[in-house]
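Suppose a colleague, Dr. K., hands you the sequence of a protein chain of 166 amino acids and asks what its three-dimensional shape might be. Before reaching for any lab equipment, you can write down a predicted structure in token form. Begin with the sequence itself:
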Amino acid sequence: MIILGVDPGLANTGWGVVETVNQRYRPVSFGVIRTDATHSLPERIHAIASELGKLAKMYRVEAVSIEDIFFAQNISSSISVAKVIGAVTHEMTNLGLDVQYFSPLQIKMAITGIGRADKNQVQQMVALLLKMDKIPKPDHAADALADCITYAVMNSTMQKIGGIKR
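The predicted structure, expressed as tokens, is then:
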């Protein structure tokens, strides 16, 4: 299965593509989509969703994992991120892809087994699970790769307990 992971943000949206076969993970590609603050909010949101749509087609993605908003310290930025998530969801569902959302806690648990793991611990495990020599950079891309692995872990767990296959 080829999974697109998304770490949503208005200024920087991390993305990663991971191929999974029998609970083995292979990094395909990753990066960050940056938007210019001088552009309007709709233009920025559209650019992010459109670029992710192109990436999904290019890598023949089968599923999408998006980090969900968990806690809003800055309500204004949280609203913008929610708009990005909505636009990306729309774009991916138009492509016929399964989209799942995971909280930061779910991602930390899937990657490290520890719900209170810090960012560095998660990124070190991402590098280890993907057999990478070093932590992927920038951080938003590493987080998106963690989203991919989380989808694979959750999908595998659901299959093992007889749940619905995602």
